[in-house]
Design a protein that fits this description.
Blueprint: H1 3-16, H2 28-44, H3 50-65
Helix pairs in contact: 1-3, 2-3
């Protein structure tokens, strides 16, 4: 899986939640954690669409980091 493509899709997903380039709450380790989570979800759910897995991972990241 193309890591750069997934990072771009993650970033775009954050933009849907009204984050901007300046307010994006991701460090490189956060990207890595999200990538690993998405790859794990993809192994567990091989028929799922990639964008759905990314949306699920980003939503989970946002809801857990705001607590």
């Amino acid at each position: 899986m193309n890591e750069a493509l997934i990072k771009n899709m993650i970033r775009n997903c954050f933009y849907q939640y009204h984050y901007t380039k300046e307010t994006l709450p991701l460090s490189e380790s956060d990207y890595r954690r999200l990538l690993e989570e998405i790859w794990k979800m993809q192994r567990d759910q091989p028929d799922a669409e990639l964008y759905e897995l990314i949306e699920d991972a980003v939503y989970e990241f946002i809801t857990n980091s705001s607590q």
